[in-house]
Amino acid sequence: MIKGLWWKGLAGILLMYAVIAGFFIPVPDTMIEESIRNVFYHVGMWFGMFVLLTSSFVFSLRYLTKFDEKEDIRAVESVNTGLLFGLLGIVTGMIWAKNTWGDFWVRDPKLDGAAVAIFIYLAYTILRGSIDDVQKRAKVSAVYNILAYILWIVFVLVLPRTANSSIHPGQDGAPVMALELSTTTRMVFWPAMAGWILLGIWVLDLRIRIRLIKRTIEHGYGSER
Amino acid sequence: MEANGKIFVVVAVLAVILTGIFVYLFLLDRKVRKLEKQAKEKSEKKES
Question: In angstroms, rounded to a whole number, what is the distance separating the alpha carbons of residues A76 and B9?
Answer without folding.
Answer: 40
